[in-house]
Fold this protein.
Amino acid sequence: MNEKLNLQEIINYCKENGFIFQSSEIYDGIQAIYDYGHYGSLLKQNVKKEWLKEMIQRHNNIVNIDSSIIMHPNIWKASGHVDNFDDLMIDNKDSKKRYRVDVFFEQLLSENKISQDLFDECNNLVNNNDLEGIYKLFVDNNIKCPISGTCNWTPVRHFNLMFNFKDIDDNTIYLRPETAQGIYVNFLNIQRSTHQKIPFGIAQIGKAFRNEIIARQFTFRMREFEQMEMQYFIKPGEDERIKQYEYWKEQRLNWYVNILGIPKEKLRFKPHDKLAHYAKAAVDIEYEFPFGFKEIEGIHCRGDYDLSNHEQYSKKNLHILDPETNEKYIPNIIETSCGCDRIILMLLCEFINREKSEDKERYVFKINDNLAPLKCAILPLMKKLELTNVAEKIYDDLKLKYMCSYDDSGSIGKRYVRNDIVGTLKCITIDYQTLEDDTVTIRDRNSMEQIRVKIEDIEKCL
Ligand code: GAP
């Protein structure tokens, strides 16, 4: 029997086995900020590598950029984030706890504490920005704070999600809430220096920061997280927009299925009810987490919103010249934007298995081969010099070609268990037969089957 873990079990698993830790844990942690351990960070590197491969190796008209986190403050005025990037919040005066209205109602619905009708009504009011209506909904329906148990609410307010601080000259500086703007303000530099013609894309992986009001569900909603965004610059026009939008929707869904190995039935498209301030059309790709279908990636038609605004605020010409028609225009943008941390959480939810047979139980991280943190572990059967000498030699031969580990501590059974837990693909065991005929056993993580191969043939089996 094969079981998936619940969220709390996944959180424990991540901590015990070196995937993800609460940040600043010895100081009792800091809300919604996490650190990746050895296996988690290797997994993350592999996901990022696959994303870059998909974007800039599969597509010869997509190039890469690494822009700064801190940028000119006017960028965030032009982008609309200073005025529009906020959530609706409400505070309970007794518990002093602050809630994000839509997420709070989602939580109440999932706990069957409110009806679907009430949830839909709240959603409508949020979408219509009806602050008084939402407050009335709280009061009329006797919605209580789960901590204080009272209905003593403040009015509903907007809460800007950008972190900011003052620099030495007293300017307000923002930490970027998305990586996209670093692409827009560099788009002409990149286009000219890489000789791209429309349509072309610019990809970027980098940290983003949001002062999220409610931070729950582990790494699903973090205040510091990593995005993998690609901005695709196209000719204006409805036909082209629809063509490219549909193309990228399909490409991105296929990536999750074909490259990350996520079953198709665990993914779905969800069009946005409420469009972000920059979007003309938008859809999310959602994955079925243990806590329900939730967004992992957004695909947005941003039109010329961003570049036009940057042109206006910077007073620089951001038009592009079409060499074929001699026409000058501001390109339109299709954006694909996913959160690397959400993808990692999805992979942990999907591929950590508890396998039960009659008398045994094992935990195994059955992640796809291309993403496994370790390709192989080199394990001398016992810590005896004649065995460790050979094992160390094999390790030295492999360690710069593959991400692998050397482990000679504890029983061989325990070492297999440890490697299954972190998803190591193959365990290579050096035993006494190795000394006689130069063969080792290679154990497969998924099937647990072992084959015996010559040392010189090990690489053919990896
Ligand atoms: N540039 C567009 C943009 O940022 P978004 O839908 O706000 O769009 C894109 O974010 C992706 O970033 C989301 O689909 C999600 O995977 C990830 N993301 C957003 N906020 C996050 C958070 N607080 N914690 C972790 N990931 C987050």
User: Anything to note?
Assistant: Residues 178, 180, 210, 212, 221-222, 225, 227, 229, 295-298, 335, 337-339, 341-342 surround glycyl-adenosine-5'-phosphate (CB under 6 Å). The chain is about 35% helix and 25% strand. The radius of gyration is 26 Å. The mean pLDDT is 95.
